[in-house]
Amino acid sequence: MASATEPDEISRRSLLDLLLSGSLLSFAAAVIYPVWRYITPPPVSESATSSVVAAKVSDLARNTGKVFRFGSRPGILIRTAGGEWRALSAVCTHLQCTVQYRPDLEQIWCACHNGHFDLSGKNVSGPPPRPLDQYEVTVKGDDVVVSLKA
Amino acid sequence: MSRSKLDQAPGFVGWLDARLGFSAALDFLRHKPVPHHRSSVWYYFGGVSLFLFSVQVTTGLLLLIYYKPTPDAAFESVRFIMAQVPFGWLIRSLHSWSANLMVLSAFVHMFSVYFMKAYRPPRELTWMTGMGLLGLTLAFGFSGYLLPWNELALFATKVGTDIVGSVPGIGHTLLRYVRGGEDVGGATLTRFFGWHVALLPAVFSGLLGVHLLLVQRLGMSEPLAIKTAPRTIPFFPGFIIRDAILWLGVLGVLLALCTFLPWELGMKADPFAPAPAGIRPEWYFTFLSQSLKYIPSRVLGIEGEIVGITASGLGGLFFLLVPFLDRRAARGQSSPIFTAIGIGVLLYMATMTTLAYVKPY
Amino acid sequence: MRWAATIVLLFACAGMAAAQDKVDSCVTCHSALTDQLGAPVAGMPNDVHSKHGFSCADCHGGDPTIMDLTAMAPETGFRGKPKRRDIPDLCGRCHSDAEFMRRYNPGLPTNQRERYWTSVHGKRLAAGDEKVATCISCHGVHGIISGHQADSPVYRANVPSTCGHCHSDAAYMAEYKIPTTQETQYRTSVHGVLLLEKRDLGAPTCATCHDNHGASPPGTSSIAEVCGQCHVNNATFFIASPHKTAFDRLNLPECVTCHGNHGVQRTSDAMLGVGDGALCGTCHTSDSKGYREATAMRQTIDRLKGDIEHAESQLERAEQLGMEVSDTRYEFRNARALLIQARTGVHHFSATAVDEVAKPGFELAQRTGTVARAALAEAYARRRNLIFPLAIIAVVMILLAIKLRRIERAPPRANE
Q: Facing residues of A109 across strands?
């Protein structure tokens, strides 16, 4: 039986084994490190559960409006003079500028070409050819939640 | 019975071995010969598929920590993983890339086994469990694709599940079961999620266990062309170390893909928006969707879609039952007809897939 | 000879009329005639007046129940073809009578005739010029359809060609010594392209700025008000700016001075400032305050545009590299609007005002740029750092391969 018993043969083998173990350990570390960082809770601990909390009730006084993000497009949230909540698409139906709320007119206005919309989104004057899309508004506690109309 | 090194293993390993008896298994693996010949490179694809599956399980478990399976939160949670979680971008891209590579690897594995006629007796069950695993892999791909709840996924799922609805008779019922309702919506998402993370992994693991057991018990099949006994290498450590080297290489490729070609997220799904132009399913389904485009709307009085589904179903059934159909191979003779059929199917799939990308309309 | 033919036809008419329920000799007889005597009948079935039950006699007089030429006798009140001078009054007989019109179309205005007499057309018609437009020139006469229908000559999109029917005819307009290029210019203008090619019915037509029934050019000192019907902020700023009094004093046509009227094109930043092709230098000499303001305004706008474009390209590059920057992309949507706002602010004609208006734009560009650059840095870092795991993998692969070779080279142990 031939056995590998020469001293330098053994030490070459041990060197290889040593190197191999070392590299395998590094490999394990290179895998564990990112996994460890991943499972550590990040500073912002969770994703926004809904893209549609448009504002807090306390954010808006009566007869004011606010543009918020609704998916990938802007929406406009209005608290009317009478205290009601309205939410509509803020993309003007004429040439897609972002509309704004005009407390002096109690209307929605587009600065680009003087388009006017009433509070239910109907295009009442100027170039816009169609009304603004309406959204559903629900107040949950302190949150004003906007969702697509069913 | 030879005494393995482990008998001399110190304390704890010896203690475990006396109870679990894994040294016997190791002995078996040491002696199990794997043929080493010109075509044996194809033997590795099963292992690569297995490795990629383990990558999927690992990254999938990690994604589960942050993913939320509801329409309101799914997209945002994936975006959160990609943008806010340290290395989240990597885990997510790994999961998506590895899924695609796994499907590719599974197909290569299936076709290489087919062309080597390794399905012939006694390996009929190995082949059939393997086909089951392939089907489950595709189901994993289909269910997982919807989970990020983005635009492309929503419409691809709509189109895909629509096809289910054209099965005659039970089609509509099937569609409702698959979708969890009439339309693709939140119910579909939770249903697909349940399948993807629980049901499919359980069934897959069971089938995989049987498959691997059979492979180990029956050994590797040699191609019919090889007449003389080939050189063999022991499964452990020879074949396994080669496997490990290859798997590390695949991991390296995956890492490079994730870094240079990170997986996109796209736009959030909006069920009210019209379908964007050019939707198509994931590439491994495109040969089916592209074929459907070429079938006329009525064939001999039957609706085109039904013809398409039936044809694919028959094709699948053919492949599933090929060990029993290929009598010549069973007798150890060359069966050029079946080779030709295989080449034909492969060319067909490749052509249709290419056309889906080159000529989508 | 012609009379003989007419008498024959009259008997034919009588015969035909006898076979009809409702007797309308105008239609019966004239439909058998050719050329201009028969043409009026052709359009009448679709005519809005005949649909409401009006007959030829309601405008032309005569008695449609009489089946011969005496239907047109003077006693019947037959007017025949009205003189051009009388057309506004003929139409106005009904259309300016609110009580009457209420029975047919309560929503229709009834002040058209009143406005017409204030127009250039009306005034010239009153002075005896028969070439000018009257009601029938634009609305048609036999076969009038509602202006809301797409084939009406007064449908919004058809207005430029209706006005151009005369106003683009150089020979016809020769004696009036006004240009005849308006329609051609309009068609190439921003408004014309919007109306005629993009079918945006919100775009202004001739009537929007000139009025339709009261068609006249607006006075030079009211041009800003007219343009301001849509371009509110531009007009408001302009009217409050030093240019308003200056232009009015010099009798310069306000907005038109810089932007043109019929052929108004998309504005460009090249118009602002004192360089080549810029407009401010045409009045302001190089030692004037206006010159300095113009130069400063141009610099601000150029800088803002540059900052936004730079931020945009960095953001795009980050997206191409697969980085998740959708929040910033959403915010950056506003950049175009802020740039337009800054350009509108130019109409203050004050460098400080423009700087103020441009501030939000600069801030957005800066925020976006910061986020985009961070994302880019991260993307490049990931690529650089890839070398570490790849190196480890490579080392492990090599060592495993060596180990494998060792194992397979070593002669088998006897007891195996």
A: A100, A116
Give me the interface pTM, i.e. the ipTM: 0.84
Residue B289's nearest CA partner among B339, B349, B215, B343 is B349
When mean pLDDT is compared across A55-69, B225-239, C224-238, C379-393, the lowest value belongs to B225-239
Number of neighbouring beta carbons within 10 Å of residue B65: 13
* Residue contact A37–B77, C-beta within 8 A: no
Per-residue pLDDT tens over the stretch A35-94: 999 998 887 766 654 447 788 888 889 999 999 988 778 999 999 999 899 999 999 999
Of A14-23, C15-24, C167-176, C178-187, the one with minimum mean pLDDT is C15-24
pLDDT for A50 equals: 46
Residue type, C127: A
Domain extent listing, chain C: 1-81, 83-216, 218-265, 289-385
Q: Are residues B130 and B208 in the same domain?
A: yes
Mean pLDDT of the region C108-117: 94
Predicted pLDDT of residue C121: 95
Distance from the Cα of C230 to chain A's closest Cα (Å) equals 4
Residues 237-296, chain B: which have Cβ within 8 Å of A?
Answer: 248, 267-268, 270, 272
Tokens of C206: 């001739």
B16 and B71 belong to one structural domain: no
Shortest Cα distance from A64 to chain B (angstroms)?
A: 28
Q: How far is B84 from chain A (nearest CA, A)?
A: 7
B234 & B164 share domain:
yes
Whether B79 is in a domain gets the answer yes
Contact residues on chain A for B88, CB-CB shorter than 8 A: 38
- Segments forming the whole domain that contains residue B12: 1-31
- Other residues' Cβ atoms within 10 Å of the Cβ of residue C351: 19
pLDDT of res. A134: 92
Q: Is residue B99 located within the same domain as residue B142? A: yes
C294: left (phi over 0), alpha (psi -120 to 50) or beta: alpha
Question: Given CA atoms B212, B218, B222, B223 in this order, what sign does their dihedral have?
Answer: negative
**pLDDT on residue B51:** 97
Taking an 8 Å cut-off on Cβ atoms, the answer to whether B260 and C404 are in contact is: no
Q: Which residues of B touch A34 (CB under 8 A)?
A: 86-87, 90-91
Q: Domain check: are B66 and B92 in the same one? A: yes
| Predicted local confidence at residue C414, as pLDDT | 46
Reduced to 3 states, what is the DSSP secondary structure of residue B352? helix
**Number of folded domains in chain B?**
2
pLDDT at C163 over 50: yes
Best mutation target among A47, A91, A138 (most B Cβ atoms within 10 Å) is: A47
Which residues in chain B are closer than 8 Å to A39, comparing Cβ atoms?
Answer: 62, 65
Q: Position of tokens 């019915």?
A: C201
Q: Mind listing the pLDDT tens digit for each residue in A98-148?
A: 999 999 999 999 998 899 999 999 999 999 999 999 988 988 888 888 887
Query: What's the whole-number mean pLDDT along residues C358-386?
Result: 94
- The CA–CA distances, whole Å, from B345 to C109, C166, C206 equal 75, 72, 67
The pTM score is 0.75
B137 within domain boundaries: yes
Q: Tally the C-alpha atoms within 13 A of residue B112's C-alpha that lie toward its C-beta.
A: 17
Mode of pairing for the β-strands spanning A134-140 and A123-125: unpaired
Partner-chain residue, chosen from C323, C393, C416, that has the shortest CB–CB distance to B248: C393
Residue B307 lies in a domain: no
Q: Can you tell me whether residue B355 is helix, strand or coil?
A: helix
* Whether the predicted pLDDT of A3 surpasses 60: no
Q: Are residues B164 and B19 in the same domain?
A: no
Residue B187 lies in a domain: yes
- Which of B256, B275, B294 finishes a domain? B275
Judge if B261 and B131 occupy the same domain: yes
The DSSP string of B163-221 is HHTTSTTTHHHHHHHHHTSSSSSHHHHHHHHHIIIIIHHHHHHHHHHHHHHHHHHH-PP
Give A121's DSSP letter.
Answer: -
